[in-house]
Specification:
This protein is of the alpha/beta class. The chain has 14 helices and twelve strands. The chain folds into three domains: 162 residues, no CATH class; 95 residues, Rossmann fold; 189 residues, no CATH class. The longest helix is centred in the first third of the chain and has 54 residues. The N terminus is likely disordered.
Length: 487
């Protein structure tokens, strides 16, 4: 019993040391965020004052214009209130992989609440200078811009430090299959996140490494490996594992300061779809109806119509030019109409600029497009690289066959194949097909995993919001410039 107790004591001390080390690495970054935010609060108020001075009518008597020094009390209140608001909104505990769009949305919320509470607090507790009602509006705009700008600069600096090896977290990945390799590839593509994969834990016989990372042991040794390698975070990438197996793995990692994350499978990620119901007092698990209905459906349709109409008006000269170029580049029509499956698995004619020869499928039938596809024309390759062949689909959106954001529509031949071996595949047809989607902006476009694409499509359907749509649109616009799967 004594050796086991000594081993336990050693593991506990290792865990405490690792926890303190991790906290020590995180503290400077969080303190720098607080310092940058305080500076941004001051800069925002100063810019608001300058903007007010620049736009004020100097002859007006109803718009008082106090000296800048008179805002000292207001600035103190602002720093106090907004720092507290940011803390309670957990803006100092953000995940490293948070996108710039998500960061901007969270900071927008924090700046809005913070500025409102700041002026309410200052008006109630302090007898400050009289100021125009435009000052809070200007301060809201300039504070949000300053906080976002300072945060992005700070994130860039810390990303460069992590890329150089400073402040990294040691990560152990459980699994070495396709899911684990997907996790590895994403970590390796983003060194600025500061994750250093120290090894893999896997039970597959003969497997020594994956994507250059060695297998350091088996799952039964997970607890000892975590202590031996001083691991900060464990990523369990075994989507095929049973609940009992996951519980057994997690139970080996019960150590102070150790972060544990689990890569979900297609069904686990649908957990948000389940809620607790009741039948005469008997609790039941019920599947939530996630289809868009009522005002949500009307709102999404209104956004689709407004944006697609505006975009079609704006791109009509470009679309006309591209149609002429397609016609001149190869024989055949400029536009290509193909049957796809949309809402409720009903077929509809999807419009694209033609990028292939007229006889492209004469010998092969319906097949996936691939990189360096010989069937693609010279101009077609350029159109596909920049996704210009998709522009006519805004006509589909305007007439109601598609939405701007939604699961990408597939051809009937492929749907008939996928529906038999991909679980819940047909549920992606509960919403309108989209020009872009959550799967596409996450790299699942073209000849990629249908299982993974389905998982992302179902996640989008279950978690729809208008803000989610706008986020996908913005990320699509950015991704067009650097999409390796556009071919």
């Amino acid at each position: 019993m004594r050796p086991a107790g000594q081993a336990l004591g050693t593991g506990a001390r290792a865990g405490q040391a690792s926890s303190r080390a991790r906290a020590g690495r995180a503290a400077p970054e969080r303190l720098s965020q607080v310092a940058l935010d305080v500076a941004a609060f001051a800069v925002g108020l100063r810019l608001a004052y300058g903007l007010y001075v620049a736009t004020a009518d100097v002859g007006a008597t109803l718009e008082p214009l106090p000296h800048l020094e008179a805002f000292g009390t207001l600035l103190a209140a602002k720093v106090l209130v907004m720092t507290a608001v940011f803390f309670f909104l957990r803006l100092y505990h953000q995940p490293r992989g948070l996108s710039r769009i998500d960061l901007a949305a969270r900071l927008f919320r924090g700046a809005t609440i913070g500025v409102i509470l700041t002026f309410a607090f200052a008006s109630f507790f302090f007898e400050g200078p009289a100021y125009s009602r435009r000052i809070p509006i200007y301060d809201w705009m300039t504070t949000f811009a300053a906080v976002l700008g300072f945060r992005l600069v700070g994130r860039t600096v810390w990303g460069a430090l992590r890329r150089a090896g400073i402040g990294r977290d040691r990560v152990l990945v459980v699994g070495a299959g396709p899911a684990a390799q997907d996790v590895l590839s994403r970590i390796q593509r983003r060194p600025w996140l500061g994750y250093e994969v120290v090894g893999l834990v896997d039970d597959t016989p003969g497997r020594a490494r994956a994507r250059g990372v060695p297998v350091v042991g088996r799952t039964g040794e997970l607890g000892a490996i975590v202590d031996r390698l001083a691991v900060d975070e464990v990523l369990i990438a075994l989507p095929e594992a049973t609940r009992q197996q996951l519980l057994a793995l997690v139970s080996q990692c019960q150590r102070e300061g150790l972060s544990i994350k689990v890569f979900p499978d297609v069904f686990q990620i649908l957990a948000s779809e389940v809620y607790i119901g009741a039948l005469d007092g008997l609790p039941l698990l019920a599947m939530r109806d996630v289809a868009l209905r009522g005002w949500r459906l009307t709102l999404k349709r209104a956004v689709d119509v407004g944006l697609s109409a505006a975009i079609l008006v704006a791109i009509s000269p470009v679309l006309l030019l591209l149609a002429v170029l397609v016609k001149l580049d190869s024989a055949g029509s400029a536009f290509y109409v193909q049957e796809r499956m949309g809402l409720d698995a009903r077929p509809f004619p999807m419009i694209k600029l033609r990028t292939m020869r007229l006889d492209a499928e004469r010998d092969t039938g319906a097949v996936w497009a691939s990189r360096d596809d010989p069937r693609v024309t010279r101009l077609g390759r350029f159109l596909r690289r920049w996704s210009l062949d998709e522009l006519p689909q805004f006509i589909n959106v305007l007439v109601g066959n598609m939405s701007i954001v939604g699961p990408r529509p597939e051809r009937p031949e492929f749907v008939a194949e996928f529906r038999h071996h991909i679980p819940r595949y047909m549920e992606r047809h509960r919403e309108k097909a989209g020009i872009t989607g959550w799967a596409q902006i996450n790299g699942l476009r073209g000849d990629t995993s249908i299982e993974e694409r389905t998982k992302y499509d179902l996640y989008y359907i279950e978690n729809w919001s208008l803000l989610f749509d706008f986020k996908i649109m913005a990320k699509t616009a950015l991704r067009v410039l650097r999409d390796p799967h556009a071919y």
